[in-house]
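This is your field. Have a critical look at both lines of this record:
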Amino acid sequence: MAPGTLSQEIVVNLLKHGIDEHVVRVRRRYQERRDAMLNALQAHLHPYATWNAPEGGFFVWVKLSVPIDARELLDKAIENGVAYVPGSEFHHDAHASSSLRLSFSTADPQLMDEAIRRLADTIAAAIKNTTSD
């Protein structure tokens, strides 16, 4: 089976014009998105969680500071206009139930602060509900 015409054209174009400049542009774009997320996390999520600062990849792993099930919190987050993947999706048991994975690869850096603020508001409300019960 031969690759499609579009795929062939992309490879030919990269070989003709070089891939190095493209890689530099893409890395810069992803770094900008990652940094926007890390800055927003520091500004809004600091009291509620800890997280990694990835040196590669497209995700930030967040660990909530209180035992809230991230899977149960997801519906509220979606109602508030944000989404994530619950950490328990990456384990065979409930090991990471208070963890979540955030993606920055397709996120608009200009909207990142608002998105993380909404996530922080969702988490703060869940913490308030668990402590008032």
